[in-house]
């Protein structure tokens, strides 16, 4: 591969399917974000070594020595801290490369040593402090004006994350860039949608992410980082059983290979409808996802029947949300003009008013489909609240209900909710984004106003929209604004 090798991977928002997606009988609706992690591989003059740098953070340089027979990637004793995610990504990707390409090919590709820089778009980390220090209001415009890949002024362990899934995006971009660099997958693997190379990158990234986290989760965050937005059905964790043992396996390839039928995840086609936009906000109050998950699963075990009924109801709604949003895309494809009319119509009205005029409903079919999507998102919220109440955990706590109600009642807002496991820390909304409108302000601007003036909770927007590029991709460094400067030595 010519230098520099650059691969990016998107962040994620699970808009439906929290908790359910842990069970292979159900699925989740995951939207990948335009906000991405970037891995840049360049040659370095540190023979036999790999230096990894995260220039957005203080004290974030890690040196590794690589040795062969057996393949080992070890922390330099001089490293000020450990980065388990990075070390495991290097160890197991290089191990796999040796297995597939042989020791000599890997030595050649390592050359005189590698410099690997990793940066994440600003959205992955809270920009509140940055905005305050610049005296800027919490708006999309302010966020767009901040330096790309802005230094955070803290160590990685002290950063305030926004929930886009930094570790999954990081692992996926790092693993894919290394696979490309060592020639294990061809560049086309990261331009075509689904293919052998992309599937291999997925399987390896899932394995490494599980190892680094010390558990096998549902994996929707890694699969979004690899494949982009989709309807995700998880894999059976037994596929990783042999690789997750304490002693390092003698071989990884047979397990992570695309030919291994034990990988039974499913990736269903999904994207948000045209002329809409997802809006995300970070709410300044954290929740502890693992403890929420533990309690919900304990309740499900204890109250089997009640839980199964609720799971089925929510699943039915989640599937309907996916099919209704996909139907909107197909209505757009069939008749873009009529679809555009629908978006302009509903952009100036609250959802409860969208279908009030029977002649509009008849003339512009997309209007009632948008209304259906609105009703489904509201029902999903109601049922997730029920799950929270029954399990005794704050999935959509009252403070978030009030915030979401204030947003969903604005003109042109289709729906919203608490992403993933829920809690206090984030909200998502789907709003209309008409290309031209007589009605000022746009739904997006109304929401920005609600958020910036909200008193009960401190709400800060993220810049992300949906990523239309399907997952991990190879980049040209000069096409990514600010990337060259951010990684400069
Ligand atoms: N910019 C970065 N550079 C290097 N490692 C990173 C970076 N961002 C995240 N990580 C790794 O990911 C870990 C965070 O993982 P985790 O707490 O699971 O976060 P998340 O929920 O965002 O995935 C960090 O401890 C670090 O090892
Ligand atoms: C409960 C879940 O289904 C969803 C959690 O989704 P989040 O997006 O809240 O996850 P984190 O990035 O780990 O904070 C657990 C899972 O699927 O892993």
TrEMBL record:
EC category name: transferase
Biological processes per GO annotation: ergosterol biosynthetic process; farnesyl diphosphate biosynthetic process, mevalonate pathway; isopentenyl diphosphate biosynthetic process, mevalonate pathway
Catalytic activity as recorded in UniProt: (R)-5-phosphomevalonate + ATP = (R)-5-diphosphomevalonate + ADP
E.C. number(s) listed in UniProt: 2.7.4.2
The UniProt record lists the keyword Nucleotide-binding: yes
Pathway: Isoprenoid biosynthesis; isopentenyl diphosphate biosynthesis via mevalonate pathway; isopentenyl diphosphate from (R)-mevalonate: step 2/3
UniProt domain GHMP kinase C-terminal: residue ranges: 379-431
Listed Gene3D superfamilies: 3.30.230.10
Keyword list, A-Z: ATP-binding, Kinase, Lipid biosynthesis, Lipid metabolism, Nucleotide-binding, Steroid biosynthesis, Steroid metabolism, Transferase
Protein origin, superkingdom: Eukaryota
GO MF terms held by the record: ATP binding; phosphomevalonate kinase activity
Database matches in InterPro entries: Erg8, GHMP_kinase_C_dom, GHMP_kinase_N_dom, Phosphomevalonate_kinase, Ribosomal_Su5_D2-typ_SF, Ribsml_uS5_D2-typ_fold_subgr
Pfam families per record: GHMP_kinases_C, GHMP_kinases_N
Domain GHMP kinase N-terminal: 161-228
GO terms under cellular component: peroxisome
Protein family: Belongs to the GHMP kinase family. Mevalonate kinase subfamily.
Name of the featured protein: Phosphomevalonate kinase
Species in which this protein is naturally found: Tetrapyrgos nigripes
């Amino acid at each position: 591969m010519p230098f520099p090798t650059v691969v990016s991977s998107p962040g994620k928002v699970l808009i439906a399917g929290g908790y359910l997606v842990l069970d292979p009988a159900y699925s989740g609706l995951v939207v990948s974000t335009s906000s991405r992690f970037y891995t840049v591989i360049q040659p370095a003059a540190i023979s036999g070594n790999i230096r990894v740098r995260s220039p957005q953070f203080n004290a974030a340089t890690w040196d590794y020595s690589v040795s062969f027979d057996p393949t080992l990637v070890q922390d330099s004793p001089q490293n000020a801290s450990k980065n388990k995610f990075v070390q495991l990504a290097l160890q197991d990707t290089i191990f796999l490369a040796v297995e597939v390409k042989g020791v000599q090919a890997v030595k050649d590709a390592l050359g005189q040593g590698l410099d690997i820089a990793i940066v994440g778009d600003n959205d992955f980390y809270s920009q509140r402090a940055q905005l305050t220090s610049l005296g800027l209001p919490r708006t999309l415009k302010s966020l767009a004006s901040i330096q790309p890949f802005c230094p955070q002024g803290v160590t990685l362990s002290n950063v305030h994350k926004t929930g886009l899934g930094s570790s999954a995006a990081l692992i996926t971009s790092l693993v894919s860039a290394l696979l490309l660099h060592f020639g294990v997958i061809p560049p086309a693997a990261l331009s075509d949608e689904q293919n052998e190379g992309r599937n291999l990158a997925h399987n390896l990234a899932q394995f490494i992410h599980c190892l680094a986290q010390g558990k096998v989760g549902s994996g929707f965050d890694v699969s979004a980082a690899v494949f982009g937005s989709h309807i995700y059905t998880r894999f059976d964790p037994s596929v990783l059983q042999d690789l997750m043992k304490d002693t390092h396996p003698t071989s990884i390839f047979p397990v992570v290979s695309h030919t291994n039928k034990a990988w039974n995840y499913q990736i269903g086609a999904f994207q948000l409808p045209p002329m809409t936009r997802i809006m995300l906000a970070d709410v300044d109050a954290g929740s502890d996802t693992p403890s929420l998950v533990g309690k919900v699963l304990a309740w499900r075990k204890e109250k089997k029947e009640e839980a199964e009924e609720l799971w089925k109801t929510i699943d039915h709604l989640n599937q309907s949300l996916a099919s209704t949003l996909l139907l909107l895309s197909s209505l757009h494809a069939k008749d873009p003009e009529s679809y555009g009319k629908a978006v302009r119509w509903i952009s100036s009205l609250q959802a409860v008013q969208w279908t009030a005029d029977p002649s509009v409903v008849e003339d512009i079919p997309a209007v009632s489909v948008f209304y259906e999507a609105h009703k489904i998102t509201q029902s999903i919220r109601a049922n997730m609240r029920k799950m929270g109440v029954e399990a005794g955990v704050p999935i959509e706590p009252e403070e978030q209900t009030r915030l979401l109600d204030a947003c969903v009642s604005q003109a042109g807002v289709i729906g919203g909710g608490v992403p993933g496991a829920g809690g206090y820390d984030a909200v998502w909304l789907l709003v209309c984004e008409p290309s031209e409108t007589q009605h000022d302000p746009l739904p997006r601007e109304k929401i920005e106003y609600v958020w910036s003036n909200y008193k009960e909770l401190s709400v800060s927007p993220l810049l992300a929209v949906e990523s239309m590029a399907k997952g991990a991709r190879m980049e040209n460094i000069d096409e990514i604004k600010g990337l060259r400067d951010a990684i400069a030595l």
